């Protein structure tokens, strides 16, 4: 893919959602996109399930109601798509996705281009531990890189411990990934992970930066008092989650920090300028999609078919402009 520009600013949104309030968090997403645009950031990556926050298994009915239905210019997505279009900002947004006209949920990352078009949705392949009570499994049809036309690069992402799946990472490598969106929750706030969470995130994100030869934008939320207050009011006092946490950064393919890491309860756009032309110098040394692949020895394949009924071909092919044209025609 020929780059339209090689240098541009990217950022990880180190922020807390308005927990279990989809409408309010959508408004916050729009505000953060507008803030990013004001700071000349061209690509903004959000944490895992930023809308409506990381789930509590004992509140699944409410959580499903607050999850996002991803449709072009649909009720949940229209304001976010409009913000991307108005500001010329591309985003990778972590959401709890609810299948339209149903109650099946997915842990998803929605990629929206600077013209407001939804390029695609990646659904987490394997929910972890008790996450399996909340989210269904994604399939290979969403294990994709998405071409960000405004930036001339391919963006792919994985959520949380999905980054431990070497096959999933290799699938993105084979699709000529340039930038990786690593979406995480506030893992270090969870009991038992305080001492190891940040080290795990750093290790996995640096591993993918080097082995895939990509820039990595890691976005983690933090837990704020509004989240703890909601849980205490609706579920009782929580002993397994505390305030704070999060680990956000921007990494160079050779694992140098371009921004961060940033942790704790301070909202911040963790931002850096990246230069895609630097990938050439990296790939002269090591190219996982090229001379380091050795396909005659290390054979790799994955099932790229969609298996969920709503993942129909062309689900997101309609551009925003086309939808607006249809609306104008209906009004006439």
UniProtKB/TrEMBL annotation:
Query: Which terms does the record give in the GO molecular function aspect?
Result: catalytic activity
Region feature Disordered, mapped onto this chain:
313-332
Q: Which residues form the CN hydrolase domain?
A: 8-276
Query: What's one Pfam family here?
Result: CN_hydrolase
**Could you tell me what this protein is called?**
Related to nitrilase
Q: Which family does it belong to?
A: Belongs to the carbon-nitrogen hydrolase superfamily. Nitrilase family.
